[in-house]
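Journal club side-thread
Mid-discussion, someone asked how the predicted structure for our own chain would compare to the paper's figures. Pasting it here so we can look after the session.
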Amino acid sequence: IRTDTVSGEDTTASVFGEAVLRPTDTFDLALSLRHDDSDDFGGQTTGRLAAAWQATPETTVRAVAGTGFRAPSLFERFSAFGDPDLEAEESLSLELGVERRFGGESVVKATAFYTEIDNLIRFDPNATVCGTGFGCYGQVEGTTRTRGLELSGRYALAQGRAALFGAYTWTDAETEAGRLPRVPRHDLVLGIEGEIADRLTGRFDVRHVADVEPSEFAPADNKVGDYTLANLGLAYALTDTVSATLRVENLFDADYETAGGFNQPGRAAYVGLSTSF
């Protein structure tokens, strides 16, 4: 990184390996290891172990455990808002889930997750080390913990020509000082997709986000909070391999923010062509 006032660099060499095993016809294992060697942060080895057990032909149980390592970016260290003394983040993540299929195309999934991060890096409006008077990147004291539950499902309609789908995530994210801002506690998506007519398919979904806290540096008139978004998509098959597409995001032009003082797009439409070969 180089600007008019500062410069910095770091070189990281990494090696990654993965082994996929199937001890039995109903049990799968995947083990991965990664080693990062950074000029500024030394060597760090992380890993991930994932298992899937097909308890019945319709039911699969999954479990994942992994560790993580992230060195601060050059911008977080050397920009006008940076702190060159930042430490690397280290994390532990765990997941346990179950998937149940009904009649081939209908499915229900549930996953519990837990993550903890030491030395989480985020913008601190009260930090003064960078001298901006506005705040700097800093380290969150102690361990940041995130836990939650994900539920999702898909139900086939009209002999598979259409489907209802939905997903819900409950998340509880906390630091030792209190709740982690900008992380929704509730996130719900409901929708329908399928064939509308010969060669015409469509998708409509609604997303509702609730119970979000703004960051400390959000302006007093910020719009961070609950919001609801609707999205629409259409595709028309011009030939067997070419389709014309229309996608409208934020269909009802909701006015909302996910970071205080930073607007999100209003209604947006995208028209295009897609092909497969």
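Post-session note: DSSP finds one helix and 16 strands in the chain.
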